[in-house]
Structures are given as structure tokens and as C-alpha cells.
Task: inverse folding
């Protein structure tokens, strides 16, 4: 059973999500929040598997709420909702600890899939629209940093794997691209995460773009 807290200032949006999850086996909505502060409070109270977090909310917004949830309850996953007109927040959401994000007009089946993926501890970064939003924002000069020392500890193959992760490829897709086994692909990704001190694939994407290892055109 995946336990979910819904955080959105629009009552109708929350009602729609609740209706969807209440009619689907394997999900339980344990709380609804109309703002970020309430989302943080409910996360402490219920310790859900996933908080579905809107970005634009009154008072404490979704980005600050995500930072607080991940700092205070690191085991709780956050799935951020966004729209095309706020895509500048996407990269900040990932930096804040979100495990992924979806557009608000996402198909219900995709939302259910996303919740399952995030609850399992993976990052939802594969959809092409998601990659496009990340790339557009990450390419901005103010978010580029010098190559961190940790990157120099990676082997050439590990740097290649990191670039493919940043491009949104799954372990299986990386294996196909590099003509290696899926097990070897998983091992490479795990080693990169350990060397860079990344908690998940989302952080790997952030590190790859911030360091300049990956640029939109190369990804």
C-alpha cells in the first residue's frame, strides 16, 4: 500500500487526485494540504511514502515545503507537480530533494505510474518533456559550476554513464546504448552515486548539469 499526502491549494485538483487514488488498488490518501506548511505538518503526522506537491501555493510554497520535508523526513519521497509556465522551478525542485515531477495535465495512468516509481525509490526523469524542461533551465549560466573534485574520481565509463543518466535513460536503456548487461549498468550507476554522494538519480542529474559535464545539446 502506497500512502500519499496530496498538497495543492486547489480543492478540485485534490479531489480529482483523491478520487483517482481511492478507486485504484494499492494506494491510500492519508492527508490533504492546501499549502506547503500544512503539507510538512501532515508529512510529520502520517509519514507517507509520497507527498504529491504543487509548487505554487500560498504562504509556504512547494519548493520550501519540499526542502523541509526532505531535510526533516528524508525517507518521505516528494513528487512535484508543475506547469509549462513555471518550468524555471523544475531544477530547483530537484535540488530541493524531489524525486521527480509531472505536468499538471498528466494522464491519470502516468500519475499512478509515477507514484509507484517514486515510492520504490527511483527518480522519475525519463519522459521527454521532463528532460526538455530540465535541460532548458540547467543550461542557464547562473546555474553552472566548476567541475567538482568528485567528478575527477570517476572513470571514463562512469562519466559516460552519468551523462546518460542525465539524458533521462533508464538502466536498461543505458545497457542497450553501451552494449553491456543490465546488471553491469546498475553497478555503474550505483558506483557513480556512491562516489558523488548522491542520494538518487535526481541528484545525479543535478550534479551532471551543474558541473558542466552535460549540456543540453550533448545530453
Result:
Amino acid at each position: 500500500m502506497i500512502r500519499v499526502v496530496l498538497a495543492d491549494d486547489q480543492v478540485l485538483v485534490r479531489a480529482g487526485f483523491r478520487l483517482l487514488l481511492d478507486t485504484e488498488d494499492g494506494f491510500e490518501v492519508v492527508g490533504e494540504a492546501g499549502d506547503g506548511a500544512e503539507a510538512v505538518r501532515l508529512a510529520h503526522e502520517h509519514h507517507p511514502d509520497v507527498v504529491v506537491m504543487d509548487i505554487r501555493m500560498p504562504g509556504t510554497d512547494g519548493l520550501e515545503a519540499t526542502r523541509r520535508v526532505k531535510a526533516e523526513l528524508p525517507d518521505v519521497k516528494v513528487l512535484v507537480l508543475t506547469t509549462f509556465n513555471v518550468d524555471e522551478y523544475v531544477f530547483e525542485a530537484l535540488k530541493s530533494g524531489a524525486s521527480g515531477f509531472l505536468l499538471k495535465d498528466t494522464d491519470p495512468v502516468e500519475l499512478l505510474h509515477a507514484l509507484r516509481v517514486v515510492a520504490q525509490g527511483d527518480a522519475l526523469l525519463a519522459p521527454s518533456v521532463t528532460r526538455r524542461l530540465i535541460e532548458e533551465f540547467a543550461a542557464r549560466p547562473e546555474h553552472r559550476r566548476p567541475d567538482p573534485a568528485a567528478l575527477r574520481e570517476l572513470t571514463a565509463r562512469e562519466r559516460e554513464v552519468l551523462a546518460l543518466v542525465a539524458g533521462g535513460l533508464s538502466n536498461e536503456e543505458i545497457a542497450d546504448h553501451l552494449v553491456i548487461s543490465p546488471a553491469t549498468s546498475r553497478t555503474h550507476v550505483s558506483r557513480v552515486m556512491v562516489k558523488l554522494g548522491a542520494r538518487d538519480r535526481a541528484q545525479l542529474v543535478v550534479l551532471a548539469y551543474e558541473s558542466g559535464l552535460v549540456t543540453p545539446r550533448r545530453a
